[in-house]
Amino acid sequence: MKVFVTGATGWVGSAVIQELLGAGHEVLGMARTDEGAETLARRGIAVHRGELSDLDSLVAGARTCDGVIHTAFIHDFKDFNAAGETDRAAIAAMGDALAATGKPLVTTSASALLKHGVNGSENDGPDPQGPAQHRTASEAQTLSLVERGVRATLVRLPPSVHGDGDYGFVPRLVDIARAKGVSAYIGEGRNRWPAVHRFDAARLYRLALELGVAGKRYHAVAEQGIATRDIAAAIGKGLNLPVVSVAPAEAADHFGFLGRFFAADCPADSTLTQQQLGWSPTGLALIEDMAQHYFQG
């Protein structure tokens, strides 16, 4: 297939492109900047200029391809709701382009939007009160496209999509520990984060594109739930810093915006995903990956 990929130069999207090319697909990668376009061109990837707020560009990219994988998202931690609405509108626009074609559209969501404190499954809908509720409308938008003749599916990513070169939540925790002189967890640190290696996640996107069933949610979850105190302990070991607990009331002061996410207890399961798509994660576990790649410099 010729596949339109948004977020093509991002952490997840660039791995998805590598996976697609390795499987024999052709890629049209969306680039927002000249630098991004040059990065794609150096890899021999066809470039489509655009951004999430440019709906005409999204429609044009989707119409010229046999399928779409949507990994782009505006990570504006000052205005989650606006970022979520931009994402929903982008999905609606690409859905319009693919309507009545039966072509696949794979979008991205977050496992953290499920009800916390329980092991979330693919069949569970979003918790309207959860910390990731800004992505709930995008899930609904994706699934609504099935009735319009789009083979729409979504991939839920865990809080940690890790690997060498990661610049997500865990590296931010590492930076905070360096700055504060301690590696901290919140309360007892029993709350859990699921995780997946970046290349395992990329393989799941490809499988969803090729084999996904319209209307299904898939979980890119290799580890169901790692206690946050274990993540903090790995950071303390890697930086040779003491590991301490901070009270929940002090989490925002210590961690900034990340406090609300690091306090989340959001384990998730991928049993149905593995059964339905034959996906089997093989990458390093998070703690092992951290020990190898997260403390250089």
Describe the structure.
The chain has 12 helices and 12 strands. By secondary structure, it is α/β, with parallel strands linked by helices. Helix 8 (228-239) runs parallel beside helix 12 (286-293). A 7-stranded parallel sheet has the order 3-2-1-4-5-6-10, sandwiched between helices. A 3-stranded mixed sheet has the order 7-9-11. Strand 5 (104-110), helix 5 and strand 6 (151-157) form a beta-alpha-beta unit. Helices cover 41% and strands 20% of the residues. The chain is globular and about 55 Å long.
Tally of extended strands? 12
- Side-by-side strand order of the widest sheet: 3-2-1-4-5-6-10
Instruction: Give the low-confidence spans.
Output: none
- Residues in helices, as a percent range: 40-55%
How much of the polypeptide forms β-strand, as a percent range? 15-25%
Compute the number of helices: 12
Q: What gross morphology would you assign?
A: globular
Label the structural class: alpha/beta
Q: How widely separated are the two ends?
A: 41 Å
Give a short account of the largest sheet.
7 strands, parallel
What's the alpha carbon Rg, rounded to whole Å?
Answer: 19 Å
The overall pLDDT, averaged over residues, is 95
